[in-house]
Amino acid sequence: TCHAFVGETVVLPCTTSPPGELSLSKSMLYWQIGTERLVHFFQDGQDSLEGQDEKFRGRTSLFQDQMKHGNLSLKISNVQLWDDAEYSCIYRQTESHQTKKSTIKLHVSAPPRIEEPPSPSEQNQIPSGSPTVVPCLAMLPFSFLPLVPLGLWHL
């Protein structure tokens, strides 16, 4: 489970184990909620966001420079209350039809209220408008699954 406040940037972890060179041009990566809501889709070495849920448009990204080494994590910017859900990370190799899947729950809360103004010495430390990146450091190994048709794979 990952936790984030509204307005923050969160990283949902997803890594292959054991890490190795992945052939991104011959694979697909789905980040989705349930079987209907596509959060992010990567195919043939590039993002393919035509079917992306409108609520996530312009707010998701992958670490493309790290993907071939097994980092399939998803970054969501400007987290909103409606982002609170269980996310599935599904990686499929096109040639071998090998599928790996992991799930992670994102819990989103309203930002905490600040009761007292900060003292002058504290004001210089963190600008109030700066975005906060909240990495979720849980390592979730994939489990190998036989190919199971999922609703979004029939795009």
Automatic annotation (TrEMBL):
Q: Name one GO biological process term.
A: regulation of T cell activation
Keyword terms, alphabetized:
Disulfide bond, Glycoprotein, Immunoglobulin domain, Membrane, Signal
Instruction: Please state where this protein is localized.
Output: Membrane
Q: Which SUPFAM superfamilies match?
A: Immunoglobulin
Membrane-spanning intervals of the chain: none
GO MF entries:
signaling receptor binding
Q: Which SMART domains match?
A: IG
The cross-references to Pfam families, in alphabetical order and at most eight, read: V-set
CC terms in the record's Gene Ontology section: external side of plasma membrane
InterPro entries in the record: Ig-like_dom, Ig-like_dom_sf, Ig-like_fold, Ig_sub, Ig_V-set, IgSF_BTN/MOG
Q: Which residues form the Ig-like domain?
A: 1-105
**What's the protein name?**
VTCN1 inhibitor
